[in-house]
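re: that chain from earlier
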Amino acid sequence: MQIVSTIADARKIRASLNGTLGFVPTMGFLHEGHLSLVRRAREECDAVAVSIFVNPTQFSPNEDLNRYPRALERDLSLLKEAGVSFVFTPDAGEIYPPGFSTSIDVGDVAKPLEGAVRPGHFSGVATVVTKLFNIIQPTKAFFGQKDAQQCAVIRRLVTDLNIPVDVVICDIVRNEKGLALSSRNSYLTESEQERALLLHDSLGKAQERIAAGERNAETIKTLISDILSKDPDFSVDYISVADPDSLTELDSVNDDALISLAVKVGNTRLLDNILVRKR
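^ sequence. v structure.
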C-alpha cells in the first residue's frame, strides 16, 4: 500500500494503475462503516484508493474541526490490512493553496435539514469531493447511507457536472445494538451510547407504522418525536419525511421516502435515517 500526501504523487499513482479504481473518501478515525465501503470497493473494482482528509471548509466556526478525532497510524494499518492500493493524506494547504477561492453550490437539495442547520456545509462537501474526484479519477466512489443528504448532494453534483464517476451508496452499518456507526460516537459516554439507541428505535417504529398502513407524514414525525421525548436531555434538530432524491418534505408516504433525524445526545450531534421503499 502506497501512502502519498501530494496531488502530484496521487496522480502519478493513478496513472500507473490499470483497470477500474474504487475510491472511498474519508475524514479518518475509521470504523467498520468505512471498512465496509472499502470491502465493497474491492469486490467491484480492480484497485482501491482511500483519502483521509479532515476538510475544514465543511465545518462551521462553532463546530468541532479542532477536536475531530484523528488516528492516522491506526487508520493506515486498518487500510493496509483491508487491501487498499493507495491512501491520499493531504494537508489543508495542499487542497486549499493560497488564493483558493472557488466553491460549489449544488442548489435546493443542499438547503434543508443539514443545510439549514449547518450553513455552508454542503458547499464545502461538494467542493472537496469535486477536487478529490479530479485528483483520484476513480471509476466508482463509495459512500455510506448514514449521511443520506450528503449522498443526495453528491449524486446531484455528479449528474449536473457530468463527472464520470459511478456513485455507489452502501447500507448503514450499525453496532450490535443498532446504533449507526460514526466517528463522532467516540464523543459519547457509555450511558449516552445506550440512550442514543432511541434514535434507531424511533425510526424502526415509524417503519412499522408505515408497513401497517399509515401514510400521513406528520403523524409519522409525531410518532418519532414522542419516542425521542422520552429522554428529556435530547435536543432534536429535525425530523424529516422526504423524497430521497430531492429531499422535498412529503405530506404523504405513497412512494419511496427517506425518514431522517438529527439529535444532540449530550454534547454530540448524531444523524440516523431509514429508507422506506414502496416499489
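The radius of gyration is 19 Å.
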